[in-house]
Amino acid sequence: MGRKNDVSYSQAEGWHITITLTESDTCSSDTITIPKEQVEAKLFPWWSVKRSEGLLEPNSFEMVHLYEYESQVTTAVAMKRDENGNFKLHGWSCVQGKRKFRTGDVVVFWWDKNFGRLNFELLMLANESLLT
């Protein structure tokens, strides 16, 4: 799947951010949390210094295009650092509302350098094995 020049999950080897969804990611929250270490190691190297450093400023955010690889749907979300230094994608409920992910599902994110967006896909259903 995907369009010509899309960076697929397998092509992004080593740059994956794997998240096991928590109850707050799948219920009433509008956000999903990505650990600081993962963002700094696997997203910031693809971003400009200005964009990376800007996101570290208090009360700042970056708009990110979140692209679901399987459905080819893009959703604009705001990435913002929280009080613990981790990063939240605000607007996740738009994705969650369409897909109905469950607590324990595993999703994987990776930066698509060709299109300048954050790709993601469902990697594993809760209590099941890898989908790929």
From TrEMBL:
Keyword Ribosomal protein included in the entry's annotation: no
One GO CC annotation: nucleus
Coiled-coil positions: none
Gene3D superfamilies registered for this protein in UniProt: DNA-binding pseudobarrel domain
Sorted UniProt keywords: DNA-binding, Nucleus, Transcription, Transcription regulation
Localization of this protein: Nucleus
Organism of derivation: Brassica carinata
InterPro entries, sorted: B3_domain, DNA-bd_pseudobarrel_sf
Primary site of residence: nucleus
Domain of life assignment: Eukaryota
GO MF annotation list: DNA binding
Tagged with keyword DNA-binding: yes
Name this polypeptide is given: TF-B3 domain-containing protein
